[in-house]
Amino acid sequence: MPQLSLHSPIGDLTVSAEDEHIVALDWGWGRDQEETPVLVRARAQLDDYFDGKLKTFDLPLRPDGSAFHQAVWKIMTEIPYGQVLTYGAISDRLKASARSVGTACGRNPIPVIIPCHRVIGAAGLGGYSGDGGVDTKVVLLRHEGYALDPKLPLFESLERG
Length: 161
Fold this sequence. Notes:
Elements: E1 3-6, E2 13-18, E3 21-27, H1 37-50, H2 67-77, E4 85-86, H3 87-94, H4 98-106, E5 119-120, H5 134-143, H6 153-160
Parallel strand pairs: 4-5
Antiparallel strand pairs: 1-2, 2-3
């Protein structure tokens, strides 16, 4: 599977593709590097995103998951840059439990590009399965200009950091 890595403010990232579709984004530097057209595009778009020049990714995605996971991930791609939806709001749309939405968020194989960091809990940030956990979620939300409530318990621990 072709992979291409890049440096980012949230650590080294590696993007993987199959048949010219992005299938994964992982933390760390990939062992084998291959510059396919879609991976070069993905790296350029991620660089532009982190440089504040890109707000919407335009890449062919093919995340592997159940039909329910696919539905959750599709909704996540529709959340505008700098905005959030709650797990509950997504679960209401899909007539499912907020917990199952959280599970789908945690299984997102293409974080950042499929912006699971834009999904928060009704009373707090919720979790984040990428490297750095909630700290990384906060970095991404701040990068997008989302105003975080400093009274949230998960946020306070970051400020003391």
